[in-house]
Write a sequence for this structure.
């Protein structure tokens, strides 16, 4: 079986072709931001030629895209209309009491400045369902038809439908959907009961409107991609990555494109989990550093952690959809170093981007970046970029760092460059600490997987700062996200609000809802063509103590819903609360707020191929020696030392070498620090640990 993974970024599109016979072919091609499907198919054609295969031999096509995310961040979605319950027209405008500046009466609220639905297109109709699901006011269908005609005349491209308590009883929303198909068949339709069937009205309304806002353009993009793939004789069995870390079919993604928001960063975490598990270290912290940003994820025992639904935001808007716990900070190879008006030394979040890029690229950039700093330090050599196909100019890097940092701070060129690296590495260290130590996880129990073009340049230092015992540098760090697309299953999460308590649980309600959700998840997977033997289900529950406003998600056991099942869920919550907040209250009842069923359609797992074996001696991979500025001990100043440079392509399984060392390859450069020991495992991953001596 041949599987194709395509991860579209802002600058480059990464492609990996995986053949179950063990052959891996990778390729990078410039992204085409006007229509990413063009760059994707250009890359597919080039990759097929590189692998010497015909495009029609590709069996499965996995895709990660930022199209939906970019629409939200750039505020360029389609015109949207909203049909809602009488009296709730302005709910999207009012939002929550939380404001960017809590004590300012003069502030611009982003969700009001960049409205998902302008007030003139927010229409109300008589209807009312209470919190138990009972109908208090029947739906006025005449009013619905009138408002639908009005929205059609105004030229909206999508209609969001969000009624009060529709998560309990969706009958009114379903009827409006039928009327929309009759009266306005060309409109993209988004129902809150289908997109976010949970309590919390504002977040549910916002998510439904977001789905409508990104829906037409994202849906059209997916349709174009599938059509281009079909015409190019590539498999049109396209699956897309979601923000929860699973795959969905193109059809499902077109219906609920809001599930694709922030999905790009999740693939890197999944790829890191797969690489860590294959090397025998399932608990991983992933550090994926590109040109503009760094993505940090923590996966104990290889399991993705999910964000709380009040923290799942995209840009200025709430999106109450499952999102894996991945944090993105403005720190990357293109992060610009500067001295601000107050004399403070800063690195990032401003980035030089691809154009003009770092000063050393010679494309007109004059401000120093972290890449320029590492050129000054000798870590990045003149012809180390893209295997020498891209040459950097060290003198331009030195001029930029000297003029903008060293002279204003009255320090040496070398100290200025080391300062740029240290400040940026500290930002990444703090991000990892925030997602591990401050959430009850000890970094010393994890391995650090360094991904992206720049991750392996920073990992050696960050591991020392956090006392992480081990670094794993994948065989192809720059395309780890594309590998992540091939290392996950098809997943559909189906939630609902239950509202019961451990001291008096409504077992009949829990059993009925979990059965309904299970049937819904299985039906979705069968619609996608997944056979019974590849389908499995997982349960989870959002729990909290009475009086709390936030829930924590815990895994729930299979089996009969009885008192023992509720007790098991309660104990799991007590343990998680204790780890997260250092407090647990075993004598207090636990509220079971939302129940969830995740339907999983197993995709044949990839098996990472082994590389050629060699002995401990790595000298055959040694290509040169260079001068680099390194710390020789934790307390002293950096010193210029002779540093061996190895070619990643020439390293063999079993090779060992000590730091300091540099390892160069097409898509990245890796650093092994002083006091660290590196070994190449059977899969070609470099395992870096502290030297025993």
């Amino acid at each position: 079986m041949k599987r194709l993974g395509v991860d579209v970024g802002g600058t480059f599109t990464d492609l990996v072709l995986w053949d179950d016979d063990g052959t891996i072919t990778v390729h990078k091609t410039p992204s085409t931001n006007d229509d990413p499907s063009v760059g994707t198919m250009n890359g597919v054609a080039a990759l097929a030629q590189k692998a010497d295969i015909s495009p029609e031999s590709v069996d499965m096509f996995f895709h990660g895209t930022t199209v939906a995310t970019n629409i939200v961040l750039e505020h360029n979605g389609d015109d949207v209309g909203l049909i809602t319950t009488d009296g709730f027209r302005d709910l999207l405008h009012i939002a929550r009491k939380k404001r960017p500046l809590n004590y300012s009466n003069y502030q611009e609220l982003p969700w009001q400045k960049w409205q998902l639905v302008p007030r003139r297109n927010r229409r109300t109709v008589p209807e009312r369902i209470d919190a138990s699901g009972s109908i208090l006011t029947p739906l006025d269908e005449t009013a619905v038809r009138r408002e639908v005609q009005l929205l059609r005349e105004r030229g909206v491209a999508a209609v969001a439908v969000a009624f009060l308590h529709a998560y309990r009883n969706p009958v009114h929303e379903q009827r409006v959907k039928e009327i929309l198909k009759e009266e306005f068949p060309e409109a993209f339709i988004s129902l809150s009961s289908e997109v976010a069937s949970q309590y919390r009205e504002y977040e549910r309304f916002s998510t439904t409107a977001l789905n409508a806002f990104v829906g037409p353009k994202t849906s059209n993009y997916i349709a174009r991609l599938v059509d281009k793939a079909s015409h190019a004789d590539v498999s049109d069995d396209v699956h897309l990555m979601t923000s929860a870390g699973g795959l969905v079919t193109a059809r499902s993604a077109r219906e609920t494109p809001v599930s694709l928001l922030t999905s790009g960063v999740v693939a890197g975490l999944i790829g890191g989990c797969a690489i860590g598990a294959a090397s025998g270290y399932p608990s991983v912290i992933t550090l994926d550093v590109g040109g503009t940003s760094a993505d940090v994820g923590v996966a104990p025992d290889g399991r993705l952690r999910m964000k709380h639904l009040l923290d799942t935001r995209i840009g200025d808007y709430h999106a109450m959809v499952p999102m894996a716990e991945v944090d993105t900070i403005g720190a990357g190879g293109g992060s610009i170093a500067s001295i601000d008006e107050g004399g403070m030394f800063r690195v990032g979040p401003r980035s030089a981007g691809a154009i003009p890029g770092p000063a050393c690229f010679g494309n007109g950039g004059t401000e120093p970046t972290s890449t320029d700093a590492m050129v000054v330090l000798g870590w990045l050599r003149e012809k180390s970029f893209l295997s020498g196909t891209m040459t950097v100019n060290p003198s331009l890097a030195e001029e930029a760092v000297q003029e903008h940092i060293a002279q204003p701070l009255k320090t040496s060129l070398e100290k200025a460059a080391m300062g740029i690296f240290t400040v940026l590495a500290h930002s990444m260290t703090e991000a990892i600490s925030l997602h591990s130590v401050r959430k009850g996880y000890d970094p010393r129990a994890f391995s650090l997987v360094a991904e992206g073009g720049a991750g392996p340049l920073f990992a050696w230092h960050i591991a020392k700062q956090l006392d992480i015992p081990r670094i794993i540098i994948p065989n192809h760090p720059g395309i780890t996200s594309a590998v992540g697309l091939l290392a996950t299953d098809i997943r559909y999460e189906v939630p609902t609000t239950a509202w019961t308590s451990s001291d008096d649980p409504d077992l009949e309600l829990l059993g009925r809802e979990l059965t309904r959700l299970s049937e819904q998840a299985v039906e979705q997977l069968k619609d996608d063509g997944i056979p019974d033997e590849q389908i499995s289900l997982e349960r989870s529950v959002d729990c909290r103590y009475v009086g709390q406003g936030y829930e924590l998600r815990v895994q729930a056991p299979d089996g009969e819903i009885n008192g023992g099942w509720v007790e098991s869920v309660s104990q799991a919550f007590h343990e998680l609360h204790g780890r997260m907040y250092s407090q647990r209250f075993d004598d207090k009842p636990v509220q079971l707020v939302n129940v969830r069923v995740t339907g999983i359609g197993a995709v044949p797992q990839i098996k990472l191929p082994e590389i050629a074996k060699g002995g401990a001696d790595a000298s055959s991979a040694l290509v040169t020696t260079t001068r680099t500025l390194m710390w020789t001990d934790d307390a002293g100043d950096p010193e210029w030392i002779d540093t061996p440079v190895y070619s990643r392509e020439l390293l063999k399984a079993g090779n060992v070498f000590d730091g300091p060392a540099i390892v160069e390859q097409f898509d990245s450069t890796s650093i092994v620090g002083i006091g660290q020991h590196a070994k190449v495992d059977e899969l070609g991953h470099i395992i870096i640990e502290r030297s025993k001596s």
The chain has a mean pLDDT of 90.
